[in-house]
Amino acid sequence: MGDYFVLAISCIFVNNILLAQFLGNCPFLGTSKKMETATGMAMAVVFVLVLAGVITWITDTYLLKPLNIEFLRTLSFILIIASLVQFVEMFLKKSMPALYAGLGIFLPLITTNCAVMGVCLININEEYTFMQSVVSSFSYAVGFGLALVLFAGIRERIIIARVPKPLQDTSIGLVTAGMIALSFFAFKGMV
Amino acid sequence: MTEAILFMLGIGGVCGLALSYASKIFYVYEDPRIAKVETNLAGANCGGCGYAGCSGAAQAVVKGEAPPSVCVISSPEGVAKVAEVMGLEAGTAESQQAYSLCDGGIRATNKYHYLGVTSCKAMSVVFGGQRDCHVGCLGLGDCVKACKFGALTMGKPGFPVVDENMCVGCGACNKACPKDIIQVKTMSEKLLKFNQKSDPLAPCSQTCPAEIDIPQYISHIKNRDYLAAVQTIRLRNPLLLSCGRVCPHPCENDCRRGIADEAVSINQLKRFAADYEMNSGSRVPIKCAPDSGKKVAVIGGGPAGLSCAYFLRRVGHQVTIFEAMPKLGGMLRYGIPEYRLPKKVLEWEIEGITKLGIETHTNAKLGLDFGLDSLVASGYDAIFIGIGAWKDHGLGIPGDDLKGCFNGIKFLSTISSLVSAGDVSIREKMNLGKRAAVIGGGNTAVDCARTMLRLGLEKVYMVYRRTRKEMPANEVEIVASEHEGIEFVFLAAPSRVVGNEAGEVTHLEYLKMELGEPDASGRRRPVPVKGSETLLAVDTIVTAIGQAPDPSFVEKTSKRISELNITRWSTIDNDPTTLQSSIPYIFTAGDAATGPALVVDAIGSGRRAARSIDLFLKGKKIEPVKDSLQKKRIEESVFKTISGVQTIKRAVMPELPVNRRLDSFVEVDLVLPEEQALAEADRCLSCCRICYNPDKKSA
């Protein structure tokens, strides 16, 4: 149990997918202008990432490894994640229209999200067990959400600050992201 | 290698199969037209239409929320194809246009200084922005940046200027504006917009019962664009020629200039613009929205009915007016004498309204010639009742049924019909004699008295039970009647009509009164002096002491209409905010709902009824306008003193000399000449909610 906790802390803070690994920067900049969209995106990522982590781990362990075709990992993961997101979208639309209305427009964005792909590959590279991959997928997603929400909160306040013209909008966004990343480095010694 | 190929094929197949099964299992019915519409949109997902991508726009089109022309970059053929899918004609829905509400801009004073702030959104976050006025434009141009079509520029006065030819009505500017200063509305929405407490409104516009944008039309007059002024007035008031003549202009009482100087002669300027259009020989074209396919019956062709019909027609409904009298116009025609509102002028004005495609049936009285059931059976979806207040209050004293006793409205309408028929011997025909007394102190009484002078009577008395100060008639009317030689008998209460053997009136007996304690209306109550009976030798007595609606149609027609609630003042009961009566599809406004009031009140409430009827016809919930102003003042715009105003004399209304007035019914009040109108328009301070333009010389 203690191991899982350490793993979770490491995924959320120390190896934060956005701020330490710099994956998934497009939605990080794209959906962080408003708190509402940021939280919506964060929820959608948590949902999809856990599912994707589980399915890719199963595929890798029970298909790719026994058949010795690990070189097809990236290719097959792309296919699986894309289909999975489509599937989830259809499923939600039918059975949970309320959730679909909330997450709907973010789901297609995740289809090509490198954070999802990255986490799935990390799970395999680190040779996590099934339970570990579940915990790591969930924690990475939570870390993604945390960073996104923090960043959205800052960006909502940046607009009233005196920002020099060449640095406005995305530029100041990236500078800010860098500074948050620096502060996240403080977690390095924790685990 | 083979394994790899087989694996990829396998996994592809599994994914494909799973998805195709899923799409079957999780299939959600979607209107097939959505997909069809979407293929005909540009597919750029640009968001220019204001919906979430092209599929969002397609859904909105199918739901009927957006017009076929929703796509801002689609070609005309694309629009036509979308319209075809929907079974509509291209362009059936009205286009939207952006417009700016703020008239202040940089002239508004600043409360704060902000350094380095580059967007309105940022500025509004900190204490609502730098301006003194919390609704005004912040002037940093978020809307200009948001516009993808280059239709907006930040104007010199510090608020956005819309290029109407470039604007596609996408609404991006409205979303970008933190103050809601720039709005995107269709013509119909603009026509049925009502003053709200949060609007940037000048004091005069707040008070005007018709809610006309007064500073706007005056500024058009300043720029010599008189027809634009006419169009501005027509957004709120279709009867500008009539109002320009007879309106007692409550707006001028609240004119901000009036605090330091004399009020701007607003109504004179309205009349100037209206007369300019009439004298120009052609009419400014009036745009109507595409046909909605709904039919409305408007009962009563007076100011309330005409106003309601006009606005309903302009927002696309089919309207039929039913009028009990031989001609349209109501009190404007039958209650207001020729010398105040010439029939020719009224005729021209009404023609302009009916020309929009409004069907009219005259000599058709509700409850007599047609009933509620026949209207419903003929397919009318909603009914407006604006039958006015035509029943005179009787005097109720002995002898009031003798020959020579008349009631105000009946008297005026009879004479009005005779005058327009070209009759020259009305006095003899009606046996009016030489001396007459009019009882009452309101506008109807003054109209009766001045009319009789013009019919050739030698002496006309006005008998009123209070004093001149308490007379409810318009001050200008009282002054004019004094000039024309009407004799006032104040503090006199008629007690008896004396007649001869032939049953003809010979004298009016009245009691002298003195003023006692103030009553509920704040006016001092007259108390009779005992034994002060006085006789006044007259041949004719006209009673004009008030009117009420005539709701007798309720008993005459179907059971359904008996469900219509009538108040104890004989008015038709309605919800005062939505004007809906106790029968959901019947709406009512004007004198019929409020009791006798101003023409401009009837016009304003006719428009309010049109808004409710429009909502009713579209199947929407009829909700009152949020934070509706309803002639009340916005507190922060009420000033005690103002600075920067020089005394400049108000334009004096030109009048016909008295000696030329009395032998005819020629119009007494004349229109301002152009130079004077321009000078008067220049006196306007172009006020907004709290800012205004002080006179240049002193600023």
What do you see in this structure?
The complex is a heterodimer of chains A (191) and B (699). By secondary structure, chain A is mainly alpha-helical. Chain A is 75% helix and 0% strand. In chain A, helix 4 packs across helix 5. Chain A starts with a helix and ends in a 7-residue tail after the last helix. With 699 residues, chain B is α/β, with parallel strands linked by helices. Chain B folds into 5 domains: 28 residues; 63 residues, Electron transport complex subunit B, putative Fe-S cluster (3-methyladenine DNA Glycosylase II, Chain A, domain 3); 98 residues, Alpha-Beta Plaits; 156 residues, FAD/NAD(P)-binding domain; 154 residues, FAD/NAD(P)-binding domain (3-Layer(bba) Sandwich). Chain B has a 5-stranded parallel beta sheet, covered by helices on one side. The longest helix of chain B is centred in the first third of the chain and has 24 residues. The radius of gyration of chain B is 31 Å and the shape is globular. Chain B starts with a helix and ends in a 16-residue tail after the last helix. The interface between A and B is medium-sized, with 28 and 26 residues.
